[in-house]
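To the structural biology subgroup,

Please find below the input and predicted structure for Acetylornithine/succinyldiaminopimelate aminotransferase, which we are adding to the shared reference set this quarter. The sequence is reproduced verbatim from the submission form. If anyone notices a discrepancy with their own records, reply to this email rather than editing the shared folder directly, so we keep one authoritative version.
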Amino acid sequence: MQQSVSRQDFDQWMVPVYLPASFVPVRAEGSTLWDQNNKDYIDFAGGIAVNALGHAHPDLQQALQQQAARLWHTGNGYTNEPILRLAKQLIDATFAERVFFCNSGAEANEAALKLARKYAHDHGGPQKSGIVAFNNAFHGRTLFTVSAGGQPAYSKDFAPLPGEIQHAVFNDLESAAALINDQTCAVIVEPIQGEGGVVPAEPAFLRGLRELCDRHNALLIFDEVQTGVGRTGSLYAYMHYGVTPDVLSTAKALGGGFPIGAMLTTDKFAASMGVGTHGTTYGGNPLAGAVAGKVMELINRSDVMDGVGLRHRWFIDGLNAINQRLHLFKEIRGLGLLIGCVLNEDFSGKAKQFNLAAAEHGLMVLIAGANVVRFAPSLVISEQEVKEGLARFERACEVVVRGAQV
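Predicted structure (tokenized):
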């Protein structure tokens, strides 16, 4: 008999690095979840842009169950069929010629940064080790990636941090150019800053970074952990922008909810990472490979990509209608189904209040800093779920507005 558990047990038993919602989800289907009290919630959070095909997708269930009956894990001393097939899917669909598999976005970015340092040391010497990243970026929570991330709140308590990482202003090419030189080994950038407020890069900014990296023989790394696998309406956001990186990190939606990450690169750069230079025990396991292979098969289709654009319009139209009535947002921005509503001065710093009010009204949303309410739903969310979710969001917003007027 299973032990009964509650949200209060989290506060007793878990290391307190999270402050989870007051309810505990127990089952889900599509873009609807139910908690321990059988209350339903529309999911506009998508597991932080992870559940690209919603919850309990029957094809993903089947892929996992079939592989679970065959082979679970062998470690990196062996390879396996599902992960090799997934590697070929990614190579065929992108610029990449080589793939390294891991378990998360942070690990994928860690591998990308290590590759950049290794390649630079091999071809330029140990002094070519500088990394340029951007203010308000987010690249993960390992010590290396949190140092590259441009949010001191996440890194300041863990000093001393890895050195030779500098931060420029996002979307400011002059700021980046002032830092990129012949000692730079890599520039790492998100095509859309997710945690930093859902801020899309300007096309000219990314083109300029590509030119600067070429001029100084530095690797251009695109962190597509949040923007990848259809989120923007292209399989990867670099395709939307027409700027090809040297290295790309991907995770989140790649597994549709099953943990997996990957670093994609070319033969030229992969050659620096010989046997033993990097590794992971669980990375590239058969279960993850089987599920992610099915995710790629289902998402990398024109009808799904077109559907992301259609759903983007549903959200934008609905959010604009709410805003016309309640006057909450000074900007609604993003691409595809990564959307940020920037709160105006009257509600500055209150994104968490909107998040909590939404949950009370049966809706799961995200925040991106204190001033942005973020949406990252399933790429195949139904029109009815969008309509119902937006209706619940409007009711939640009305509660926040009334509270602010008291």
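Summary notes: The mean pLDDT is 97. The longest strand covers residues 329-335.

Regards,
Lab coordination
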